[in-house]
């Protein structure tokens, strides 16, 4: 195999299809591929067997995955996450609890064979209408987000799983989801320094091993999105003193794939200072091997024509190899601690806000107005609240039609909508369960606000609606 191909493969993190190792991926691992990013569709009934196979092919191979807790989980995508998510942890505002939750998640990742959890979200959710961050953020103020970002990093990495603070320099003030289009934020450097950078500085101070970039355009600072911007990535290196691995957000997201393209985007990202290119999720509509080869060929061509310096690629590969070495040492040194039973549920119980009498009688009907799942949340087999309620009352029903007035009605929502107004007019007795970011809305009574949309939130909401 050529030296150039090894240099390129050492900075790539593709996704793949299925719950076993495809032939192309096995060959790539053997040839020096840095790692893979797993998604919900890769997590089958024996996921640890899959990761053992991957790790067994080559020492230092990295398995990464989005494991944030709350609404974003890969390991628990069928049932929803047992962990409360960032919004609930920020609302509780007990960094020791955040660290304990992250440590438990880190141990869960290690047991499953995930080396690198793409968490925590270090974005300050300063825009209440943000369509992609919201409950994934610890909150709307820099100090709050900073202290919980640092606590989460310490907990996760103390359990032997590398953390990735994201999305640098900040995705919290957008009104566009970068999975779908290019977000634009008209923030100057002073605003970034005061509003968005403190949580990343706290993550660096806590020893975070990697930082993941944002596909967000900041026109006052550069005409390229942060992932492709040398000046913005230099803020991380020069101003914050970070010397670990810079990971791109997935280049198959429309902010990159729909503008410059996956291959050219990967080249520009590495040239700008990215060390590890996350290619993305083939479930978004492309062949897994073809997506990997497209990016690899683009990097090889750039290396051949001199537009991508060999030294830059070698430096990126060095950092990725150092991260893999840290993972091996940290996993060996990690000490399993006692995790309080039902820790995630306890966090949600402590932050849940109840207005009015929310108890419902037999056979409630659940009307879910949350809309399509956030792309970052990935696959989910069944809405979580109906499943939690059915464990207490098998007569629970779901559907878009309003039930007759003799049946209790529960409405799940993330914010005010005309449809919700119509429902509440017809059924003022309906209990609203708010699973969105509470900064944008306080639902009228009777209502329950649970600070997130994971299984822990659903279980606590069910307790409040039906009793333990």
UniProtKB/TrEMBL annotation:
One of its GO terms (molecular function) is hydrolase activity. This is Glycoside hydrolase family 3 protein. The keyword Hydrolase applies. Pfam families: Glyco_hydro_3. Transmembrane segments: none annotated. Belongs to the glycosyl hydrolase 3 family. Keywords: Glycosidase, Hydrolase. It comes from the Bacteria. Residues 62-322 form the Glycoside hydrolase family 3 N-terminal domain. It comes from Pseudonocardia xinjiangensis.
């Amino acid at each position: 195999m050529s030296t150039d191909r090894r240099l390129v493969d050492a900075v790539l993190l593709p996704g793949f299809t299925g719950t076993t190792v495809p032939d192309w991926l096995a060959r790539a691992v053997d040839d020096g591929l840095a790692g893979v990013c797993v998604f919900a569709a890769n997590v089958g009934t024996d996921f640890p067997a899959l990761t053992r196979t991957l790790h067994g092919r080559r020492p230092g191979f990295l398995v990464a995955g989005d494991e944030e807790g709350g609404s974003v989980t890969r390991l628990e995508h069928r049932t929803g996450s047992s962990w409360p998510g960032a919004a609930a942890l920020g609302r509780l505002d007990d960094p020791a609890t955040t660290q304990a939750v992250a440590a438990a998640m880190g141990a869960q990742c290690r047991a499953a064979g995930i080396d690198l959890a793409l968490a925590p979200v270090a974005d300050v959710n300063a825009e209440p209408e943000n369509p992609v961050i919201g409950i994934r953020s610890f909150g709307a103020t820099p100090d709050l987000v900073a202290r919980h970002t640092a606590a989460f990093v310490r907990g996760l990495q103390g359990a032997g799983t590398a953390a990735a603070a994201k999305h640098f320099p900040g995705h919290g003030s957008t009104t566009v989801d970068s999975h779908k289009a290019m977000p634009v934020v008209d923030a100057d450097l002073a605003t970034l320094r005061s509003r968005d950078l403190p949580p990343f500085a706290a993550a660096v101070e806590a020893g975070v091993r990697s930082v993941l970039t944002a596909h967000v355009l900041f026109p006052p600072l550069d005409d390229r999105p942060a992932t492709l911007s040398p000046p913005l990535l230099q803020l991380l290196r020069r101003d914050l003193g970070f010397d670990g691995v810079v990971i791109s957000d997935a280049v198959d997201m429309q902010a990159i794939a729909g503008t410059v393209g996956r291959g050219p985007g990967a080249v520009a990202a590495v040239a700008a200072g990215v060390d590890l290119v996350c290619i993305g999720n083939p479930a978004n509509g492309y062949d897994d091997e073809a997506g990997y080869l497209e990016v690899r060929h683009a990097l090889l061509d750039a290396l051949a024509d001199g537009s991508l310096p060999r030294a830059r690629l070698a430096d990126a590969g060095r950092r990725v190899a150092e991260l893999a070495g840290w993972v091996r040492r940290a996993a060996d040194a990690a000490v399993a601690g006692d995790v309080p039973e039902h820790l995630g549920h306890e966090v949600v119980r402590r932050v849940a806000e109840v207005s009015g009498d929310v108890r419902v009688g037999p056979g409630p009907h659940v009307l879910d107005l949350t809309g399509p799942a956030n792309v970052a949340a990935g696959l989910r087999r069944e809405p979580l609240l109906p499943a939690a309620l059915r464990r207490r009352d098998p007569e629970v029903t779901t559907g878009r039609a309003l039930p007759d007035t003799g049946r209790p009605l529960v409405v799940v929502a993330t914010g005010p909508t005309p449809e919700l107004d119509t429902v509440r007019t017809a059924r003022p007795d309906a209990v609203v369960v708010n699973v969105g970011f509470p900064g944008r809305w306080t639902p009228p009574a009777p209502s329950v606000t649970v600070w997130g949309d994971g299984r822990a939130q659903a279980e606590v909401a069910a307790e409040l609606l039906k009793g333990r």
